[in-house]
Amino acid sequence: MVEDLFESLLQEMGKAMNIPDLHADSNNSCLIAFDTGIEVQIEPYERGEFLLIVCDLGEVPPGRYREDVFREALKSNGLPHPRPGIFAYSEQSNHLIFFGLLSLKELNGEKIASFMYPFMEKAAAWKNTLERGDVPLADTMTTSHAAAPGGLFGLRP
Predict the structure, then answer these.
(1) What is the number of structural domains in the chain?
(2) Residue 9: helix, strand or coil by DSSP?
(3) pLDDT tens per residue, range 66-87
């Protein structure tokens, strides 16, 4: 039941985001590599009650830099709703993780896509900043859920 719903949601999201042929793998998850250099993993969570959307932003080395990154990540986590995701840290890999949980109740591909655009935008901004060795700012990339890649209506200047 959950696998069928997940497959259906992936297909709907693929249509909404113009990503062909999205399918769950043998672990019932889907890893999507975007042109922006980020990879987003999507999978059912908590007995199929939620959809988990995760992006690994990379390693954050120990020291003052890590403390500064964590401070900004915590500030970002405290921003008012709507916010495109939550930051977490994996001690196992020393990586900063960005994730979102969407309730499967009344969820469809359009709703997932409207969540994904600002999620991907913030994930890409933070990943790029971390790769440069800079500290991202908490209030950067606080976009509206109506935003889409390429600007308004997908147009580029």
Answers:
(1) 1
(2) helix
(3) 999 999 999 999 988 888 899 9
Tokens standing for residue 27: 């672990």
CA distance 131 to 5: 36
Query: Model's pTM, two decimal places?
Result: 0.83
Query: Considering only CA atoms, which of 20, 42, 17, 22 is closest in space to residue 111?
Result: 17
139, pLDDT greater than 90:
no
**H runs (alpha helix) in 2-147:** 2-17, 64-77, 109-131
CATH code of the domain covering residue 61: 3.30.1460.10
- Structural domain of 6: 2-154
User: Per residue in 42-73, pLDDT tens?
Assistant: 999 877 789 999 999 999 999 999 999 999 99
